[in-house]
């Protein structure tokens, strides 16, 4: 972005230098050829003005193109920053899920059962629980059924 602005500045300085050089050459030509006919000086002045006008038109065109490119670059940069923020949020969320899954995978079988039961009480689906504790869906379903059967049998034993 700064490179474009510096490039544009260098072009402007070069054009200004060229115009100064042309004016200097015109003045030295006038002084050295004071005996030259006015028609030659007028023709030279006309050529210099035409050259300066062409140069100014070129400069204006280059400036417009540079501004257009710069606007496009800034727009893309803004879009990239927005995408980066979105990606950072997604990666953070994915990292949390991986951390939970990694923690659950490292747990012993008894603690996995506790996590399965806790998540089931919170209303999570069997598929969500299986993903969280890194177990097959059938195994999680079996754990929940066995726990339910144990709870029912303990109610029957205790109520007698």
What does this structure look like?
90% of the residues lie in helices and 0% in strands. The chain has five helices and no strands. The protein is mainly α.
**Radius of gyration (Å):** 40 Å
Distance between the termini: 83 Å
Helix content class = over 70%
* Total number of beta strands: 0
Q: What is the residue-mean pLDDT, rounded to a whole number? A: 80
* N to C succession of SSEs: HHHHH
Structural class: mainly alpha
Total helical segments: 5
- Largest sheet composition: none
Topology overview:
Elements: H1 2-32, H2 38-106, H3 109-121, H4 126-133, H5 137-159
Helix pairs in contact: 1-2, 3-4, 3-5, 4-5
Give a quick set of tags describing it.
160 residues, mainly alpha, rod-shaped
Please give a quick description of this structure.
By secondary structure, the chain is mainly alpha-helical. The chain has helices spanning 2-32, 38-106, 109-121, 126-133, 137-159.
